[in-house]
């Protein structure tokens, strides 16, 4: 075990820095602001630090180490050229307050990304400022709010979400002060139009929905749902978490949505980094464009002086939308993430559609292969598909209900069994409409061989006896972690002996 | 042609095995009226080489601050980041992992984040920290809404918070957006002409839910009035202090002068400024705020064998469980950037942090002294201590000064009129550990020439 706080080297140990311009004795600090006790940080030399973090990294599972079929999270390969691009000094070492003529390269890339995202989603205007999907949701809902205020419709206080929605949808709308109306899904997990009709009215602000839904099914009634909401004067919000399933085949604009957020860290391959950074741009239709956060990037003909510094035929500049809600992040969003995703997009261009097609191809193939292998191994009675459709989209669900009932093996047990086989486990217990749910998303960057092998290994896990699975995992750095103990015996920082 | 798809060219084989006719059949469930017809109107795919050439050309058109002496800060600070930080953070096991929902195979990141919490906790003097929010501005906003959740019931001034009138407008805008849904009114705390907080004005905040100030303040001043604030506002009003983390190598940790919540822009420790993102927001608090705080938290626990193990904890505050009653909508945060912060902190060690702070403040002190030789450049708060930035009053518009400096190959300071339009002659000059004596000489020389030109 390597622990950072076990390293107590000699005082002053640490990486060497140049001397200050003036000696410390010449600095004038207010007496009551002088720090007398430095933070009790450990002291490491570089070799110790490098070894510690390398040791930690070896105890972490990433896409690079193995198949990561985590449903809804789109754990696709992260091309390394994106990292190279994001570390160029022209992005890593620039300040958002630099003047426009010093940032033409950045601004032109922002413009290109705004345009590309608008095209892909069938929207009219895009802001890149929100730094995560949830913040994109919040930003869009804030825009809705100002839109209604502007129209004298502040009576629209309710936001409708299906019960299968991601938790961030209701949380983001509630943060803006909206009341949440949750409507039940149909038994097959799809949207229930009659339930929707029953709750809409002149107090409806918006409906938030993701399509394909969290079961990986395309909501075929989506246009009808949009119509119902629009007819009462409400707005339609598209949660872009599953946008990677439909890119180039349909768009939120075509489905009737007024606004959408994009998870650049899903569809456009910004690495997830163990929980961030992400990037959550939003796109809106024309009627909402003037409410977007400020600033976005616009372009015009350059004047004579500007021509020399222009990167192409245009001059790019910041633009403050007329009725802007202001800022949701102090600067221009996660520029470094936007740049990575720009690099990703450039590698695909119009073939982004092929990316989506392969995401769907792989998901359907894996679904097929699992059923095929289960039959061969005689374990097909232990689970059922979460949906009865011929095709799924980019992900699919399985219910381990039968395994639970007959053998006492839960979805979590199977998940832990898969960890022992060297895989990341699929998402479990979401969406809630599928009992003992396992949600599987292979992504387009896995080979047929990987999918075949996973299908076989999945069935091998189902052949294990209940006791073995209850004890799994056994080959991982630690075994099942006691989360109740963690919550009851809160230890949120290194405990010092003299505390 | 794209090269990222292992099954390219094998579509037919796979479809055939599934008994599915074509790629189109996979999308047969998309109703005809909403189908997209034809290709996306986008350019062709590029090879890696073509992409890199474009990236180098376009990003090369940006002026990287390392290429010139630069005095632009105002919330983002370019300290040197040791090479090992970049080398380690791009290890695929960290870079390509997801939020650690399966703790058994995510111990590396979980432990690293628990250690991050420990490092930050010591730095800011708070017993509890989370594993990052998006940036300093959203951390400030979330701290304020958190304080209202905790104090509103007993508050005399319900749904009311007081923030320093110096808080930069872009940051205030973020705070406003986060607060308006909860119906929180934001009132301003006054400052005296010397740039320090007016303690009389702080009395007005008694009975409200929170007071928000920054140390050093947005004008770079180390305000010695802050230790009196907590006593004035009392226990039922949260004192929230925003910090520049490097300054805490010299300055008292806010946790030691009464702060209830400490937030900050973590960027100066571990991260390049990257055009303003990704950054990481620091958030720490005392125990009364624990159950209503935003963000992910790692706890140390044990596995079934009793072995030391880490996992996410107190998740019942979060959106994936509590949905619309969650303490925040945050899901994806800035873990990887926080990891860079932890790596930088662990290389610095306590004395290294102090040394880094001294280097910042020494460069600032030196620049202040050198500039005092220019008669027509006034330092309105010259009697105050500054950590790494300070305001100068120029004889002419800041914009004309910045244009002159640029001609001379220098990136000048921040034009204060972008924050406060009436201060059209003020510039906020920032130094960091990257500012050399030569850089300062060049700036002083250039400003001397400029002032002679405009005052002649």
Proportion in helices of chain A: 25-40%
Helix content of chain B: 25-40%
Classify the secondary structure makeup of chain A into a structural class: alpha/beta
**Uncertain stretches of chain A:** none
**CATH superfamily (homologous) name of the largest domain in chain B:** Type I PLP-dependent aspartate aminotransferase-like (Major domain)
Overall spatial form of chain A? globular
Show the helix and strand layout:
The complex is a heterodimer of chains A (499) and B (456).
Chain A: H1 46-58, H2 81-86, H3 89-92, H4 104-121, E1 125-127, H5 133-150, E2 158-162, H6 168-175, E3 179-183, H7 193-199, E4 204-209, H8 222-231, E5 235-240, H9 252-255, E6 259-262, E7 282-284, H10 286-289, E8 296-300, H11 304-307, E9 315-319, H12 335-348, H13 352-377, E10 384-385, E11 396-399, H14 401-407, H15 411-420, E12 427-428, E13 437-440, H16 448-462, H17 466-471, H18 483-488
Parallel strand pairs in A: 2-3, 2-4, 4-5, 5-6
Antiparallel strand pairs in A: 1-7, 6-7, 8-9, 10-11, 11-13, 12-13
Chain B: H1 11-18, H2 23-26, H3 48-60, H4 83-89, H5 92-95, H6 107-124, E1 128-129, H7 136-151, E2 160-164, H8 169-180, E3 185-189, H9 199-203, E4 210-215, H10 229-233, E5 238-243, E6 261-265, E7 281-285, E8 297-302, E9 308-313, H11 319-322, H12 335-371, E10 389-393, H13 398-407, E11 414-415, E12 426-430, H14 437-455
Parallel strand pairs in B: 2-3, 2-4, 4-5, 5-6
Antiparallel strand pairs in B: 1-7, 6-7, 8-9, 10-12, 11-12
Helix pairs in contact in B: 4-12, 6-12, 7-8, 12-14
């Amino acid at each position: 075990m390597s622990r950072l706080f076990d390293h107590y080297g000699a005082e002053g140990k640490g990486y060497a820095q140049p001397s200050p311009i003036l000696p410390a004795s010449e600095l004038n600090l207010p007496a009551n602001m002088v720090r007398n006790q430095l933070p009790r940080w450990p002291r490491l030399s570089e070799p110790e630090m490098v070894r510690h973090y390398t040791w930690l990294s070896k105890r972490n599972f990433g896409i690079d180490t193995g198949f990561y079929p985590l449903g809804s999270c789109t754990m696709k390969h992260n091309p390394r050229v994106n990292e190279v691009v994001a570390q160029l000094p022209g992005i890593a070492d620039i300040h958002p307050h630099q003047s426009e003529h010093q940032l033409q390269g950045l601004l032109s890339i922002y413009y290109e990304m705004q345009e590309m995202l608008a095209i892909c989603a069938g929207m009219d205007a895009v802001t890149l400022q929100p730094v995560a999907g949830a913040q994109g949701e919040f930003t869009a809902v804030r825009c809705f709010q100002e839109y209604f205020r502007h129209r004298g419709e502040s009576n629209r206080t309710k936001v409708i979400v299906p019960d299968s929605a991601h938790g961030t949808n209701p949380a983001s709308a509630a943060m803006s002060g909206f009341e949440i109306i949750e409507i039940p899904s149909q038994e097959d997990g799809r949207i229930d139009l009659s339930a929707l009709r029953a709750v809409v009215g002149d107090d409806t602000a918006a409906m938030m929905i993701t399509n394909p839904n969290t079961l990986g099914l395309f909501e075929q009634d989506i246009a009808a749902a949009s119509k119902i909401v629009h007819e009462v004067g409400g707005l339609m919000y598209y949660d872009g978490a599953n946008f990677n399933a439909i890119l180039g085949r349909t768009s939120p604009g075509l489905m009737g949505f007024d606004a959408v957020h994009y998870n650049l860290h899903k569809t456009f391959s910004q690495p997830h980094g163990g929980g961030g950074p992400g990037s959550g741009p939003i796109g809106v239709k024309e009627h909402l464009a003037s409410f977007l956060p400020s600033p976005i990037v616009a372009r015009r003909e350059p004047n004579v002086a500007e021509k020399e510094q222009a990167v192409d035929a245009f001059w790019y500049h910041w633009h403050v939308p007329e009725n802007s809600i202001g800022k949701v992040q102090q600067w221009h969003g996660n520029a470094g993430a936007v740049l990575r995703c720009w690099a990703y997009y450039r590698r695909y261009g119009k073939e982004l559609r092929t990316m989506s097609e392969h995401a769907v191809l792989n998901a359907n193939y894996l679904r097929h292969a699992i059923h095929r292998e289960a039959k061969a191994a005689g374990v097909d009675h232990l689970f059922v598909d979460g949906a009865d459709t011929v095709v799924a989209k980019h992900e699919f669900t399985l219910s381990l209900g039968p395994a639970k009932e007959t053998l006492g093996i839960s979805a979590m047990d199977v998940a832990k069994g898969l960890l022992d086989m060297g895989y990341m486990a699929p998402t479990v217990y979401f969406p809630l409409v599928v009992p003992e749910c396992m949600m599987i998303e292979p992504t387009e960057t896995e080979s047929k061989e990987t999918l075949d092998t996973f299908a076989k290994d999945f069935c091998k896990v189902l052949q294990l006896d209940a006791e073995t699975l209850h004890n799994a995992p056994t080959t991982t750095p630690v075994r099942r972690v006691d989360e109740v103990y963690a919550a009851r015996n809160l230890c949120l920082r290194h405990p010092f002996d003299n505390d | 042609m794209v090269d990222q798809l292992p099954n390219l060219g094998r579509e037919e084989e796979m479809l055939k095995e599934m008994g599915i006719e074509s790629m189109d059949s996979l999308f047969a469930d998309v109703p005809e009226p909403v189908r997209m017809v034809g290709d996306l109107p986008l350019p062709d795919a590029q090879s890696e080489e073509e992409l890199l050439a474009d990236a180098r050309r376009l990003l090369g058109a940006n002026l990287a601050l390392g290429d010139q002496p630069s005095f632009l800060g105002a919330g983002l600070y370019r300290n040197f980041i040791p090479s090992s930080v970049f080398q380690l953070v791009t290890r695929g096991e960290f870079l390509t992992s997801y939020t650690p929902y399966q703790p058994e195979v995510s111990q590396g990141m979980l432990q690293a984040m628990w250690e991050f919490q420990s490092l930050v906790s010591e730095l800011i003097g708070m017993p509890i920290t989370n594993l990052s929010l998006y940036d300093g501005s959203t951390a400030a906003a979330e701290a304020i809404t958190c304080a209202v959740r905790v104090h509103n019931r007993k508050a005399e001034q319900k749904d009311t918070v007081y923030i320093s009138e110096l808080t930069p407008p872009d940051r205030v805008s973020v705070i406003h957006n986060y607060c308006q849904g909860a119906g929180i009114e934001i009132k301003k705390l006054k400052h005296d002409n010397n740039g320090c907080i007016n303690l009389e004005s702080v009395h007005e905040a008694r009975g409200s839910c929170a007071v928000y100030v920054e140390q050093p303040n947005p004008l770079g001043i180390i305000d010695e009035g802050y230790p009196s604030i907590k006593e004035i506002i009392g226990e039922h009003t949260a004192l929230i202090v925003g910090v520049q983390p490097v300054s805490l190598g010299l300055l008292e940790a806010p946790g030691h002068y009464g702060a209830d919540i400490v937030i900050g822009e973590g960027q100066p420790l571990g991260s390049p400024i990257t055009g303003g993102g990704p950054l990481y927001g620091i958030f720490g608090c005392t125990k009364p705020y624990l159950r209503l705080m935003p963000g992910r938290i790692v706890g140390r626990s044990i596995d079934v064998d009793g072995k030391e193990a880490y996992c996410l904890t107190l998740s019942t505050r979060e959106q994936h469980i509590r949905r619309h009653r969650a303490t925040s909508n945050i899901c994806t945060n800035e873990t990887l950037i926080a990891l860079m912060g932890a790596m930088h902190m662990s290389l610095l060690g306590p004395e290294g942090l102090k040394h880094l702070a001294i280097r910042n403040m020494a460069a600032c002190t030196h620049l202040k002294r050198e500039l005092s030789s220019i008669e027509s450049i006034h330092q309105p708060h010259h009697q105050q201590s500054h950590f790494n930035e300070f305001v100068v009053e120029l004889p002419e518009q800041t914009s004309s000064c910045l244009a002159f400096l640029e001609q001379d190959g220098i990136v000048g300071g921040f034009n204060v009129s972008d924050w406060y339009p009436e201060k059209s002659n003020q510039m906020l000059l920032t130094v960091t550990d990257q500012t050399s004596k030569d850089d300062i000489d060049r700036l002083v020389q250039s400003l001397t020439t400029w002032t002679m030109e405009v005052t002649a």
